Amino acid sequence: AQLFQLVRDVATALRPPILDAGIASAIEWQARRFEARTQIPCLVQVPDNLPTLSDAKATGMFRILQEALTNVMRHAQAHTVEISLALEDGILCMTIADDGQGFAVESGRTVSFGLVGMRERVLMLGGRLELDSEVGEGTTLRAYIPMDPTVQERHP
Q1: How many CB atoms lie within 10 A of CB 153?
Q2: Count of beta carbons in the 10 Å neighbourhood of residue 106
Q3: How does pLDDT run across 58-105, given as a tens digit for each residue?
Q4: How many other β-carbons are positioned within 10 Å of the β-carbon of residue 4?
Q5: What architecture is the 2-146 domain classified under in CATH?
Q6: I want to staple 45 with a disulfide (CB 3.0 to 4.6 A). Which of 57, 84, 90, 142 is the partner?
């Protein structure tokens, strides 16, 4: 029985079951969990007509969101968070913005293992990550993921 539970926990960690409901529902669910844990309001904007994502893309975006929200919780001292998805010209952009204390983005250097992990996930999906922040101005993270299946996803 313990082994079965362990296998289930590992499977859930690899691909959260909430993703079965689609990335939009998963983002909304994660935002509500974040609000419940932190008491920080989270505004979510997701278009109705999102295409179905591959498991790799959906899981990658969900993990990026989780890490970004963890960073907000740990470091930002934010009062609100905004999460949005937008699809334009075959590129899905997920934006996570907070109104927290921000930080000085050092020229080209990543500042945490969390950011390194997010950047690696985005690169494995053939995308790119942008980080904008200034002290006192909050932080905005954007993950751009190509929807074109011909764009090569890299697997470690």
Answers
A1: 16
A2: 8
A3: 999 999 999 999 999 998 999 999 999 999 999 999 999 999 999 888
A4: 8
A5: 2-Layer Sandwich (3.30)
A6: 84
